[in-house]
Design brief:
The radius of gyration is 21 Å and the shape is globular. About 20% of the residues lie in helices and about 35% in strands. It has one domain: Immunoglobulin-like. The protein contains 2 helices and 7 strands, in the order αβββββαββ. It is an alpha+beta fold. About 10% of the residues have low confidence. It has a 4-stranded antiparallel beta sheet, covered by helices on one side.
Length: about 150
């Protein structure tokens, strides 16, 4: 009886170590579409510029994303943040992000006004979306990326 318990204990240790060594991988993601939305704001001016990023399947794990936007006038905005599964709507494949949240220390002066004036549907030349398993620390390659033009 004791040897049977020892064998099961050893099996559990081996399984646990193999999970630690191989890591728990996240399911793959695939970017399906991107859309700019300027009709969600109820007058506050804080939600008048949104980007909707849609995936082939709803997210079931946390990922990090980067966005690079270039308007037809060559204004540029880039940034990134975590994408989490939607607790309130787990079947939804699309995530809304506020463009003003992409403003950071390296953004151009007047970035908020630039977003308001130029980051509108129909005036976007290119958008590059990159998705990573976690926030990149160096030169990690994205697990998915797509370039969209003329939005």
């Amino acid at each position: 009886m004791k040897s049977m318990i020892e064998k099961h204990g050893l099996i559990m240790v081996v399984l646990s170590l193999s999970l630690i060594i191989t890591g728990c991988s996240k399911p793959p993601v695939e970017i399906a579409s991107v859309k700019f939305i300027d009709t969600l704001d109820g007058g506050s001016g804080n939600f008048d510029r949104m980007i909707q990023i849609c995936f082939k399947e709803p997210l079931s794990a946390e990922y990090y994303h980067k966005v690079k936007i270039i308007t037809h006038q060559s204004y540029k905005l880039d940034g990134g943040s975590m994408l989490r599964p939607l607790a309130s709507d787990p079947g939804n494949k699309c995530h809304l992000r506020n463009l003003y949240n992409y403003i950071h220390r390296g953004s151009p002066l007047g970035a908020r006004q630039m977003i308001k004036d130029y980051m509108i549907p129909g005036n976007i030349n290119q958008v590059l979306i990159q998705v990573y398993n976690s926030k990149p620390q160096g030169k990690e390659l994205p697990i998915d990326e797509k370039l969209f033009k003329d939005l």
